[in-house]
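Handoff note, outgoing to incoming analyst
You'll be picking up this chain. Sequence as last confirmed:
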Amino acid sequence: MLNKYDGYTVGPNLRQLRKDKKLSVYQVSELTGLSNSSINQIEQGGRGLSMNGLYLLMDAYQCDANKLLNIEETDTKMNKNEDSIDSRLSELPVEQQNYLRHIFEFMIEQATGLVS
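Most recent structure output, in case you need it:
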């Protein structure tokens, strides 16, 4: 079951992650290429987070999507014998992580409308 994106829950979590990393909105903007205004709107819950924005923030904050989206571990239970994609991806060098994220993003874009 997929969780519905809730900007009013995700936004404050993103702001807290940024503050925990001791980064200003300007610094996050420089790291991601997102505008200061976009970052503020996302953090306030008034603007949705795109897949591209998600990947950019994952790179900037050096964390996985579950942490960024404030998804609890109980919501993402997997077979204990299986590794999550995020944990396996985090073990790779950053260049390979970025390459695979771009491939995954392309796959999602191509699958739009194929899966109901």
